[in-house]
Hints:
Strand content of chain A: under 5%
Strand order of the largest sheet of chain B: 1-2
InterPro entries (chain B): Ferritin-like_SF, TAT_signal_bac_arc
Strand order of the largest sheet of chain A: 1-2
Oligomer: heterodimer
Radius of gyration of chain A: 21 Å
Pfam families (chain A): Ferritin_2 (PF13668)
Pfam family, one (chain B): Ferritin_2
CATH superfamily of the largest domain in chain A: Ferritin, core subunit, four-helix bundle
Structural class of chain B: mainly alpha
Organism (chain B): Algoriphagus antarcticus
Structural class of chain A: mainly alpha
Number of domains of chain B: 1
Protein name (chain B): Secreted protein
Amino acid sequence: MKIFEVLNKYDIKPEELDSFTTRREAFKKLTNFGKSIAFATIPAGVLAASTQSASAAHIPTVLDVLNFALTLEYLEGEYYTKGINTPGLIPAGKDMAIFKTIEKHEVDHVAFLTKVIKSYGGTPVAKPTFDFTAGGMFNPFNNYEEFLILAQAFEDTGVRAYKGQAGKLIDENSVLTAALQIHSVEARHASEVRRLRGLKGWITQANIGAGVPAAAQAVYIREDNLIQGGVDVTTVTPIGPDGITEAFDEPLTKEEVLTIAGLFIA
Amino acid sequence: MLKPNLSEEMTSGLDLQRGNRRNFLKFSGVAIASTGILLSGCQEVLDILPKPGKKPSKQAVPLGKGDIGILNYAYTLEQLEAAFYLMVVANPYSGMSQTEKVLMEDLKNHEVVHRDFLKAALGKDAIIDLSFDFSSVDFSSRASVLATAKTFEDLGVAAYNGSGQLFVSADLLLIAGKIVSVEARHAAAIRSIFDSDPTSFAGSDVIDSNGLDRAFTPDMVLEAAAPFIKNKIIANQLPTS
């Protein structure tokens, strides 16, 4: 889609953009157009085209990553869907608005990843049966503080999980970009949930955060890394180690993530 | 390499966002108009942006090509953000709460780390220290500072999201990934303290119906950032796929 087609679609003449009053109108039209793009669904023709690429050598890896991501999104989606539908759990007002937003995104991610997997000729994994008590260790739907703690752990894990998979998508640009676009949404969620709990939105050293059980340490291992791309960052900046570790989020491997998520799969 | 074929909305969105003046207007409409102090149309949008027609007076800066070019592009944005938050911390706006002081100090620290790290990682290939123009920002005004911070953080997220696919090196892609999620954490925090809408941390102005954040091309991002950068940034050797 080229810009002039956009302008045509909304009857905007390029020269009109130069006068302020019509620019004002153009803002409105172009903004609306941006929205209509964002809310479009994947066209069937594109899906057919992707199936042809399903034979390329890297596609099984791409599908593997997508199904891994889907598993995590199932977990998050069901967790928040249960949370917002448990009477008396989430305080009405700000907190409920936040979790309804997060829930919507996770459910949207499930639907999106499912479509993408199918578009590449793959089979979306089935939704596991979840046990959010982790065999009786947690009680998130009866205790809001525990609900928040697990939400924090899931979001921070989600950020690390996507980051750890990005390199495997490097030969499939469109999927890589989409994964990055999900990754930053998970990071926005993580920041918000942490701040709801009175923590900073970012991870200092490998601290699990006040109130989080030590069992969750696996979520934060290696977040205290100070070496990036072979550079000892402490030697190139006046900022101290806390700030350095906050400035970089670290990846988790698929196996590490599945160990964490596996606690909640019945 | 296979052509992107997953999501026309995404690729067409990127095409749409390839830099030119009208695309920038669209960006302004979406991002700048959502900064919260802009409630009634475009005069405010134009007010917040530096006036057009200002000629760069400083040295032109080519970013280079390949992965180095992309890293220099990131280094450009991190220099901009670091310079901005250094100003914010040095000139606290009136009524800055203790919580907000801590937040601004953190953001300053993180962006300085990103800047210093990228400079070191680039070594002799690093671009020069850029000169910035923050004349459009009223550093004494909470609304002006936070609106600018929000714009920069959201822009940073969209920039890294859009440039990940341009890397050849998976190691560099990972490092960019380590940075972008911190920018997204920042964006959420700034939105959370600034916007009255409790859902703004991941608001529908930046997250689409698939639950995807924005991804912008370098041209788009640099056009949006240009009013704040005195040097002319030359990005014509950057990879496009």
